[in-house]
User: What shape does this take?
Amino acid sequence: DAGVIQSPRHEVTEMGQEVTLRCKPISGHNSLFWYRQTMMRGLELLIYFNNNVPIDDSGMPEDRFSAKMPNASFSTLKIQPSEPRDSAVYFCASSNREKLFFGSGTQLSVL
Amino acid sequence: AQSVAQPEDQVNVAEGNPLTVKCTYSVSGNPYLFWYVQYPNRGLQFLLKYITGDNLVKGSYGFEAEFNKSQTSFHLKKPSALVSDSALYFCAVRDLDKIIFGKGTRLHILP
Assistant: This one.
C-alpha cells in the first residue's frame, strides 16, 4: 500500500481565495482525521470521520472551514475564503483503530 | 476529557548517552497512550503504544516507554542515543475514537 496520500504537497495562495486539500486514506481503514500543525498551537485535530460520517468537527476553527468524505477512499478539506492565519501544515491520517498513519502533509501559505 | 502534557519543549542529549522524553497524562478510566515521531517535512510515525499489560513497552528504533500509574507518566526512553534520533516527538492519548497529541518535544542528539 502506498500509505496515506495527500495533495498538493505545497499550496501558495492569496487571501480570499478558495483552497481545497485532498486526502486518500489507506484502503480498509475506516477512520480518517484532519490535523493542522503550527508552531504556536502544535498539532490540532480539526475533524474526524468514521465510515465516511463526520463524528466530531469541534476542532474546525470557523465556518470558513469544511470537510467532506464522499466515499471510503477520498476526503477533502476546504477553506473559503482563506486568510493568512490559515497558513500551516495540514495533515490527513487514517486509522485501523490501533494507530494512526499520517500523510506527508500539505504546506499551505496564504499571502 | 483526556489530555497529555509534555513539559519540555526541547531536550539535548549527547550521542551514546541515554535519553528520556517526558510525558504526563490525565485520563478518566484506562489510558491508551502512544508515542509518535516526526522527522523534518514528514508526517508523524507511530513508535509505540500502551493499552494494558507490562508497564515497559518496547517500540520501533530501539525506543521504549515506561507506564507509571502512580505518577501518571509515560516517559519515552532509549539507552543509547543516535544522531539520527533527532526529531520532534509527540505523546498522545486516545479519547474515544480520536487521538489527542501533546505539543511535542524537540530532541537534539549532539555528535
About this structure: Chain A has a mean pLDDT of 94. The interface with chain B takes residues 4, 31, 33, 35, 42-43, 45, 48, 50, 55-56, 91, 93, 95, 98-105 of chain A (CB under 8 Å).
